[in-house]
Amino acid sequence: MEEHLSGEAVExxxxxxxxxxxxxxxxxxxxxxxxxxLLFLRPNFTMNEFFRLVEIEKIEERAAEIARVNGLSAGxxxxxxxxxxxxxxSEQGLxxxxxxxxxxxxxxxxxxxxxxAVPLIVGLPLLLGIFWAMGLTGIVIHRLNIVTAMYMVALVxxxxxxxxxxxxxxxxxxxxxxxxxxxxxxxxxISGSGIITGALTTAAAxxxxxxxxxxxxxxxGIVAGMGIICEMTAMLMMIPPLLSYRHERLIRKGxxxxxxxxxxxxxxxxxGGLGNFVKExxxxxIIILLAIGILLITQTxxxxxxxxxxxxxxxxLESIExxxxxxxxxxxxxDSLFVILDNPGEVSDLVDQLDDLDSVKSVDGISWFLPNRxxxxxxxxxxxxxxxxxNNLPPSEEVDADFLIEEIFRLxxxxxxxxxxxxxxxxxxxxxxxxELTGLDKDGIKTGESIFDRLTDTLSxxxxxxxxxxxxxxxxxxxxxLMDMANTEPISEDMLPELATESYISRDGSSYLISxxxxxxxxxxxxRKILNSQVATVTDRGxxxxxxxxxxxxxxxxxxxxxxxxxxxxVFFLLLWDFRNLKLVLLTFVPLLLSLTSLFGIMALxxxxxxxxxxxxxxxxxxxGIDDAVHINHRYLKEGKGKIDRVISATGTAVLLTTITxxxxxxxxxxSIMRAMRSTGIVLVIAMFLAFIYSVVLHPATxxxxxxxxxxxIESWGTGSDEKK
Length: 725
Description:
Layout: H1 2-5, H2 12-24, E1 29-30, E2 37-38, H3 55-69, H4 79-113, H5 118-140, H6 146-175, H7 180-209, H8 215-252, H9 257-264, H10 269-280, H11 282-297, H12 318-330, E3 337-341, H13 347-355, E4 360-364, H14 373-391, H15 401-424, H16 428-438, H17 451-461, H18 464-485, H19 498-504, E5 512-518, H20 527-536, E6 542-543, H21 545-579, H22 582-605, H23 617-625, H24 627-639, H25 644-667, H26 675-709
Antiparallel strand pairs: 1-2, 3-5, 3-6, 4-5
């Protein structure tokens, strides 16, 4: 208007564009201060297509390049982008973790066994077992998820345990003067049954996870169970020929393997002293450790579960930080809920009901473009009446500038009042827009010229003839648009633009999509629960990651409990089959139960939350944590009464080494930038430490009490009493 009134020639297209902006609004979604814009991208693949997520990086690079050329910055967010970032950060963490774990474990074994051939004797079977496990995984499952990939790293620490028990026993018997072959045979006789039982109980606990409803946990159970069996088989099959190869090389060089064994002193001072301490102070050990366990049990009810998926990702991810920006600048969340309907007639009513919810910012559906039959019949008389009014409009009158200025002033006052009400109601976006129109700041103080000031000045500055000229130019263009909008022809799907049909109608035309946009970030506080509960009052057909997050946590809880109970049952019967003594089996479960409850107590004290990744610790601990007590039992039954110090000195050393290597395997997750991996590493390291303390310190002390002081028989059924032995 100002250009025309000042005498400049205004092209018809420019005026039409201005009218379209007036009628339909800006074609871009802008932030409160109009300094940020929002674009929606719709990829032609889903989040489940794991390997195609890398294509998001190409989109990010292209967006950043275009923005840079135009002096802007650009970033992507949304669950698919977060999923891609999760894949990248987890791959980076897992690759480094596996390398660090393997190197540290091999260095530890070289240091302890003082054997340069350890990388060959133990490292080769270890890698072979991992390759077998990955090959079987490819055949059975065809892929790795984040949890199974984490387990492949942990398998480095778990798989080496079998080799440690064999090497420790072999070196002990060589140290006692046995020749190579008898020492190897005796090592397998003493440690073999414990290794097999430990592997079977661990694998059984893992396989129990395969019955979970959660696909990720179920796949972990299969992969973990196969991994343990593969590692046990590789170690039992490969170590004897590799030791034999080393022995023959030493003989050819004129060296004596026995002298080397005597230098190692695998019965270390630490475990030897620990054995003597347990033998002498078993009563105090039981009292103190049980007291600590009971104290920690009192805290177990305070352990919490992390229900915010974003708190499991790496800190500082742009894709997560931009979600907060969306809420602050655009008043909407990055993630939406969706509803799929088969009947298009239900869409309009459901959209209206969902739009009335306090937690919902907006609802999108095909009803925006395609009214149903009843809506059409209801609106038709109104449209026809509007058409009649347009057709019967009187000729344009002379412009009354004073009247227009008065009406503009009233409108401005009304908008100022609306802005105050919007501010008091915390409708920040509306308040900002109204203040922009009226030239007020957030405190209601006039800070600049408003659109109303410009209109008033323009109307006051030009004569009526110029204003009439502009009115005559604008009137026919506006009437043309109003007549087009007042079309009474029924709208059908084939009349809709492609953007609408692709966004809200399935390819086969059988389903209709409704998109629900939350008012706040669903990953902060309790808003997601409020949103889900309100949507559930309207429909039970919602879907999307916002709902799936709670469902995943619920399934992780139920699956974790179910798998743990199943693992306990399977392990119980395996131990009963192995030991053939109910009392000994029940005693073996005591360290495990104390380890679990103490772990929960420590997590509660240090505010470490369970999430759907680290909750796998429970069934893992059942399988792994019971191994230490199993090895102690086997050695104690072979050594006999009064030799608990020798049991701890010999087997305890191997158990200590296996605990350290397992802790290294799991601990390699701790430096990860992905918080779920770091949390899992911390929890499992604590769990392994507790299992060692209760199994190698408390359990032997308990065996002294029940067998040597109370006279319980823990021998296998049918082999005679302990007294006869």
